[in-house]
Amino acid sequence: MRSFPGRAGVWLGFLALLLLLPHALSYSQQEILVFLTINILLVVSYRLLTLTGEWSLGHAVIMGVGAYASALYTKELGIFVPASMILGACTAALVALVLSYPLFRMKGFYFLIGSFAAGEIIRLLWKRFREPFGGPKGLKRIDPMPDFDIAVWRFDFFEPVSYYYFAAAVVGFSLWLMRRIERSPVGLTFHAVHWQDKLAEASGVNVRAYRTLAFVIASGFAGLSGALLAHYIGAVNPNMFDLELMVFILTWTIIGGTATIYGPVIGCIALTIINEIVLREIGLEQMRPFVYGLLLIVSVLFLPKGLESLVQKGLARVARAKRGEES
Amino acid sequence: MVELLAQTGLNAIYAAAYMSLVAVGLVLVFGVLGVINFAHGELFMIGAYVVVAVFADFQMPYVLAAAAALVFVGAVGVLMERAMFAPLRENPLGGLVASIGFLLICQALVSVQFGVRMEHVPPVTQEVIVISEKVRLPVHRLTVILASIALLSSLWIFLRKSKFGWALRASSQDREAASLQGISISRISIIAMFIGGALAGIAGALTAPLISVNPHMGHSVIVAAFIVIIVGGVGSLEGAVVASIAYAFVHTVITTFWDGVIADIVGLALMLAVLIVKPTGLFGTADRA
User: Fold this and answer.
1) Which of A188, B40, B210, B220 shows a CA-CA span of 20 to 30 A to A319?
2) Is residue A3, in this structure, part of any structural domain at all?
3) How far is A119 from chain B (nearest CA, A)?
């Protein structure tokens, strides 16, 4: 027995909401919406990385690798912008593959510190070498997405609404892909590697290869989010991808929770709303790190499974109520 | 050339002196609590701001400001232990994440109170020991070196000779066995956090008149401290001191003859190399992660 709206109906309604959402917002809120969309891809890719049980501190820099690579491909080689984004994502995945050889000799805390060191080295290289990375000031005047028309809608990518539609499509497709990966035998092995690594190893699973695979895939999507960001703001610099961004990624992920794919998304949306709407309204933007820090501590202490655990409890209650009605 | 080398050596000894204070505190806390305190650089920063408040703003004597930094930052350390690390005792990753949260709170509070701009701390003394024309040692740097030696020696004696020191070392070797011997882990953790915080605070206070004091100064300190504790071996206090000296020399020499960013890159690469070859560090024995 299916309830009235049905699964397809819910998804269609959700899609309509996403399409209409930017038109209900002011210009600056539309811009925030674009950043939020890009950050959602970033946090969900980070969750994919944590599935195998290793927490990296290099993810922000990996995002930057995608941003720098895509920007340089368009600037130096004249590659068409959407193609350069995919190449940027591939570059980030490739860099991750190279880094995985030294990094996956380490585990736990050592992996954390090692990934931080590796990322920081890359970031300092951008800072140090003016050619081709532009030094501390970074790259400017990065080619935007070329305009085009689909039916009646003219996509002018300086408009946040147009870029939002584009980014949302890319992010939506990426999330669907990551979900498929997680549900596939490969993804189930990621979970096995995390929770039962000795048992998985004894059953003939190459634990290190699966950790590497998760790291590389996650880095590819992080690179894609970086490329989306670079061609939207048109400039990148080393400080955009520093420890502060990494702390934000951690905060979004931990406050949201990592058990489900929507956990980090909830965390990212909730904190963006708190930050951009609540704090901006009362004029306390300066207190953003304070609020983030406090929420991080409170959530680790009192809600270790994240906001998603509240959603799961809510859903379970609804399901129980429904069963109660039926019987 | 000889003079330049001599001057670089003096600069390196000074850098090694305050780095050892920071790194030893971080290692001590990791050994006893099993938590990597990411906010350790911010404890250093708070120490420097105590000097800004007490010495520069209220015009109190510098020695008093340094003592205040030692006690105050030690107390901040105890607060961290009671509020965050104790409830998360069985969850080392949670402790690390909470310390990142604490780092953000410290930066925000200091920014709101003092502003994000660089603070100027007036020099305590202008005197300079002139060894030769190009080799000079400001007296304040000598003070930092001597104070650091004094503090670390007294810590060493405390750890070797006192009952608390024995208990502290026992719990860093094996927490469960130590608690079976009747050692109160929570009491020992408070003492370790006080010492760790106080060392970071006094390091910040000692160097405040010599470096640029700003709310984000903890970042470079914590990065250097990580390099030092990885190279020196996580859990080894002597290793942390030796590695501080080695790192300070390498970093200072490269900064003098090449440039600072390259020096940072070399330091991080060195740490990665150690992690790859021997993940427990060159002097490390304990492996708690």
Assistant:
1) A188
2) no
3) 10
Segments forming the whole domain that contains residue A324: 242-327
List per-residue pLDDT tens for chain B, 289 residues long: 788 888 888 888 999 998 999 999 998 888 888 888 989 999 999 999 999 888 888 888 888 999 999 999 999 999 999 999 888 887 777 888 899 999 999 998 998 888 878 888 888 777 888 877 778 888 888 888 999 999 999 998 888 888 888 888 888 777 778 878 777 888 888 988 999 999 999 999 999 888 888 888 888 899 899 888 888 877 778 888 888 998 998 889 898 888 888 888 888 998 888 888 876 555 555 444 3
List CB contacts (< 8 A) between A125 and chain B.
265
> How many Å lie between the alpha carbon of A10 and the closest alpha carbon of chain B?
36
The verdict on A158 and A202 lying in the same domain is yes
Contact (CB<8Å) A113/B275: yes
Q: Are A227 and A88 in contact (CB under 8 A)?
A: yes
Nearest to A174 by CA among A86, A260, A50: A86
Tokens of B38: 């990411």
Q: Are B67 and B147 in contact (CB under 8 A)?
A: no
B262-287 b/e (C-beta count within 10 Å ≥ 16 → b) = ebbbbbbebbbebbeeebbbbbbebe
Q: Is A279 on the interface with B (CB under 8 A)?
A: no
A205 and A256 share a domain?
no
Interface of B with A in 249-268 (CB under 8 A): 259, 261-262, 264-265, 268
Measured CA distances, B62 to A28, A304, A327 (Å) = 49, 44, 77
* Total beta-carbon pairs less than 8 A apart between chain A and chain B: 117
Of the three residues A199, A222, A240, the one that is the final residue of a domain is: A240
Asked if A110 has any chain B CB less than 8 Å from its own CB, the reply is yes
| ipTM greater than 0.85 | no
Domain assignment present for residue A138? The answer is yes
What residue type is assigned to position A289 of the chain? P
Contact map slice: B 26-85 vs A, CB within 8 A: 36, 83-84
A254 in contact with chain B, both atoms CB, cutoff 8 A: yes
Measuring CA to CA, which residue among B42, B190, B51, B52 is closest to residue B105?
A: B42
Q: Which of A240, A273, A299 is the last residue of a domain?
A: A240
Indicate the number of domains in chain A: 2
Torsion of CA B97, B101, B106, B112, to 10 degrees: 160
Secondary structure of residue B136 in the 3-state scheme: strand
